[in-house]
Design brief:
heterodimer, A: alpha/beta, 6-stranded mixed sheet, 6 helices, 36% helix, B: 271 residues, alpha/beta, 6-stranded parallel sheet, 3-stranded mixed sheet, 11 strands
């Protein structure tokens, strides 16, 4: 009985490992949403941020951007591709992206949720990092640009070649 | 003629020569600075046309509007970028106007779906190098590698030859040597008749005013991906150019519908 219980618990932990925890500090969540919001539609960006940042995701949400032109509203979620809250494999990362997209597009006015992950890049000493010809300080290692219509079969979309995985980075996910 | 008059005349001529020489290196929309340098053109002669041609052009002034087609090609450098490129594509689709995107190869690899969407929307993609370096500082071999690597990536998204035949140097910076290297690699160099100034932080209203004042026929207009005011002004810009009788085309279409000479010597007519 004891062994069976342990086995069940271990199996539950392996199969149902929680993807995220919930932030219990609503004031902190609101502050983080404001500081991480970007774009010309800050009201929407903060609102999306408050939803997303009430969860502590394994891959940290660095920025929430919403830009609006006319009737078009597009959201962007920038993730950190390093220092995860707990180890992530490719499937778990994809699962996080899926949840972020679904949560973001819960705002019916948004037509699209773009999610991408970046890692810092070491730039040579003295290199110019600003201006149009500056060297980039981050590198995109993952991207998924998801229109609302893709929600119908999001799992298939996220497994398709529409999604970019940096091969070196993704091979290091565990 | 007094000695003072002779000195004054000499000074005026000297200033004029210095001014004309300076203009040679001013890029967009300036006198005798080409917006397009095809692979067949002699780069050295094209970029340094000589004093007689300069003076002739200066005296003659811009070509008359009646002799030039009212065609405009919107060109967007850099990207594709998340959020801003989808918004730009949405707005272009609403307006039913095509555009040409000079994409950075590396960014095109990082956002494959956005590159595909540009092509699927009927827009054109062309080569803006692999990593957006200042080509002036690179060896000819490195310049060629920048173009070839970008073409390999961008070529996955389109059957059109444009990523392997049309390029724009990052920052619009080049030397005669750069141009010759690019031509040798099989590319036409596509610059612009007018720079919208979007990269300088202008508002949509300021940009629109500038573009209206600097309008040419035909026109290649420089804009950038990732700059929201440029997207915000598009509905007004398209309405104004349509009202003035212009047709919106891709760069490839522009080159098919008018001569390079016409693009490089356009009529100037504020809207």
């Amino acid at each position: 009985m004891g062994r069976a219980l342990v086995a069940v618990l271990v199996a539950a932990l392996m199969l149902g490992e929680p993807l995220h925890a919930y932030a219990d500090d609503s004031a902190g969540v609101a502050t983080r949403a404001r500081t991480r919001a970007e774009g010309n539609d800050l009201v929407r960006a903060v609102a999306v941020g408050e939803i997303l940042l009430s969860t502590i995701w394994p891959a940290q949400v660095l920025k929430i951007r919403v830009d609006s032109v006319g009737n078009h509203h597009v959201a962007g979620i920038m993730l950190s591709g390093t220092k995860f809250h707990h180890p992530l494999n490719q499937a778990a990362f994809r699962r996080e992206v899926r949840e972020l997209v679904v949560a973001t597009l819960g705002d019916r006015s948004l037509e699209e949720a773009d999610v991408w992950a970046v890692v810092p890049v070491v730039v040579s000493k003295g290199a110019t990092v600003s201006g149009p010809l500056g060297e980039p300080t981050t590198r995109t290692v993952f991207s998924a640009t998801v229109r609302r219509r893709e929600l119908d079969d999001l799992d298939t979309f996220l497994r398709s070649n529409a999604v970019y995985w940096d091969t070196t980075w993704s091979s290091q996910l565990q | 003629m007094t000695r003072r008059s002779i000195v004054l005349a000499g000074a005026i001529i000297a200033v004029a020569i210095v001014y004309l020489c300076y203009r040679e290196y001013e890029h967009a929309g300036e006198l005798l600075v080409p917006a397009v340098i095809t692979r067949q053109m002699d780069a050295r002669t094209t970029l340094s046309p000589g004093i007689v041609r300069r003076v002739t052009r200066l005296i003659r002034g811009p070509a008359p509007l009646s002799s030039r087609p009212k065609l405009i090609a919107l060109t967007f450098d850099d990207g594709p970028y998340p959020v801003s490129t989808p918004l730009l594509l949405d707005v272009l689709a609403d307006l039913h106007v095509p555009a040409t995107f000079f994409l950075i190869g590396h960014t095109g690899r990082e956002f494959p779906e956005l590159a595909r969407r540009i092509v699927a929307a009927g827009d054109e993609i062309a080569n803006h190098t692999l990593t957006h370096p200042n080509l002036v500082h690179l060896t000819p071999a490195t310049v060629q590698a920048q173009l070839a690597d970008a073409a390999r990536i961008l070529g996955r998204y389109t059957t059109d030859p444009s990523p392997r035949s049309m390029m724009r140097p990052p920052g619009g910076r080049y030397t005669v040597s750069t141009i010759e290297t690019v031509q040798h690699a099989g590319y036409d160099v596509i610059l612009w008749n007018d720079d919208s100034g979007d990269w300088e932080g202008f508002s949509a209203t300021e940009m629109l005013h500038h573009i209206e004042q600097k309008a040419t026929a035909p026109e290649i207009l420089l804009l950038h991906s990732g700059i929201l005011p440029a997207v915000e002004m598009l509905p007004d810009l398209v309405a104004r150019f349509h009202a003035a009788g212009y047709t919106f085309v891709t760069v490839e279409d522009l080159l098919a519908r008018t001569s390079v000479g016409s693009i490089n010597d356009p009529a100037r007519q504020p809207l």
